Amino acid sequence: MKIADFTEERKLIKRGVRSIAGLDEVGRGPLAGPVVACALVFDFKHKNFADFSAQIQWRDSKLHTPKRRVEILARLRDFTGVSFAVAIVAPRQIDQLNILVASWLAMRRAVEKLKNQPEFLLIDGRYTLENYPCNQKALVRGDQSVASIAAASIVAKVLRDQMMEKYHRRWPQYGFDRHKGYGTRQHLLAIKKYGPCPIHRLSFAPFRHNLKSPRYSKRIT
């Protein structure tokens, strides 16, 4: 199984770049809940950075167990050689913008929330942030190869999962604690039975094809 490393970051450091943010989002595909983005910056000059980074296998968040993701986030929070910021775009704004634009917006907001703005962005995916005032590089499957992006993906995934677990307590009939809003059979059956709730994305199938149905045209509260 491929482990992400700091090859991309080291190349930039050799070029004189001093601050590099890994940037990723989670929650693009679900039928419910927000899209969540994280921008994360390691301090490569921190005296304990080498020891810290060697103790963690940096992988895309999807390749870690939920328990391991939570453990890594706890270690990131305790380590003084890293800073990160998280931003969300809510379901109704996703419906207004479309999910791709909403994902870009979440990532932009996350970078803007960093206490110190980075000199360079390493972004998971095919696209850079339009008109953002720093150098950038988009990397397809960057969360599987670039450690800073993998770390950002873990933070975003854990925090989004925790949000979905809170939503489950409000609307337990959908099972958000298990599928986190993705279109599982259980989730689709619950939607068919109960209709949408306030965190469902009505621009997504199955909703957009059934909005004339009384069950789908009115959200439960």
From TrEMBL:
Which locations, inside or outside the cell, does it occupy?
Cytoplasm
Any one Gene Ontology cellular component term annotated for this protein: cytoplasm
Biological process, per Gene Ontology: DNA replication, removal of RNA primer; mismatch repair
Primary location recorded for the protein, binned into one broad class: cytoplasm
Could you cite one Gene Ontology molecular function of this protein?
RNA binding
Q: What is its EC number?
A: 3.1.26.4
InterPro entries xref list: RNase_HII, RNase_HII/HIII, RNase_HII/HIII_dom, RNaseH-like_sf, RNaseH_sf
Q: Which UniProt keywords apply?
A: Cytoplasm, Endonuclease, Hydrolase, Manganese, Metal-binding, Nuclease
Q: Which Pfam families match?
A: RNase_HII
Sites binding a divalent metal cation sit at D24, E25, D124
Domain RNase H type-2 per the UniProt entry, residue ranges: 18-216
Can you state which reaction this protein catalyses? Endonucleolytic cleavage to 5'-phosphomonoester
Relay the cofactor remark from the entry: Manganese or magnesium. Binds 1 divalent metal ion per monomer in the absence of substrate. May bind a second metal ion after substrate binding.
Provide the top EC class: hydrolase
- Which PANTHER family does this one have? RIBONUCLEASE H2 SUBUNIT A (PTHR10954), RIBONUCLEASE HII (PTHR10954:SF18)
What is the annotated role of this protein in its UniProt record?
Answer: Endonuclease that specifically degrades the RNA of RNA-DNA hybrids.
**Which HAMAP family does the UniProt record give?**
RNase_HII_B
Output this protein's name: Ribonuclease HII
Q: Which organism is it from?
A: Candidatus Portnoybacteria bacterium CG10_big_fil_rev_8_21_14_0_10_44_7
Source gene?
rnhB
